[in-house]
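Sequence only, no structure available. Ideas?
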Amino acid sequence: MYKITYNITKKGRVAARPFSYIIMICILEILFKNGIYDMRRILPILALLIFISGCGVNQNTNNSNTESNAKSSSITTQDSSKMTKLDSHLTVAKQALSAGDYVKTIEEATASIKDNPNSSEAYSVRGFATALHGDTAKGLADTKKAYDLDSNNVANYYNMAMVYKLQGQLNDSKQWFKKVLEKDPSNTWSVYGIATIYADQGNDTKALDWLEKAINIDPSVKAVAAEQDHFERFHNNTRFKTLVGL
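Reply:
I predicted one. Tokens follow.
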């Protein structure tokens, strides 16, 4: 009679040795009892038994991996569904912002934040829209929250600059425009934003210098500058007229 031997696992549980291990011991003993000691005859039998035992282990491992992969796939599908919903709210919010519908922007951005409270982008969009809608203090709070959530969100730098500008805090606004340019030196509207700030502060030379930089990046700035109040008093300025084509 052969008894099943056990190992004690690290957690104190009892684990039986594989059945193929027991069979191998039995066969070896039978071979030895029959006077077969030639290892050239024994080794092929051992190899076969080890192969059979190994297949069992691999099968369990593969089953475990399959279960893990299936679980991972399920989680990924759920996350993708949630992100699709989140992106949908953000997309609508951005479209509404571009169309000047600030109420719709705020509603959609708020829905996005409800789905993902850590969305820097959603807070930033809502903050900008809120400031444009008239509540600059609340708008600034949202853009600051966006910065706390993601200090590398360059789009939020621009939105913060605009909110500060709407509050009349021109130096703070200028600093945030410059932070945008540190990451994106060719950001047309940050360059133009600085030009308008210098114009509002009465620094005509710097205003025109920065306006020229903006036009060199994107000539469409000419039409904007020609129509905005920031540069209304420049309409008789020779350099300004040359820059914008008046």
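The chain is about 75% helix and 0% strand.
Hope that gets you unstuck.
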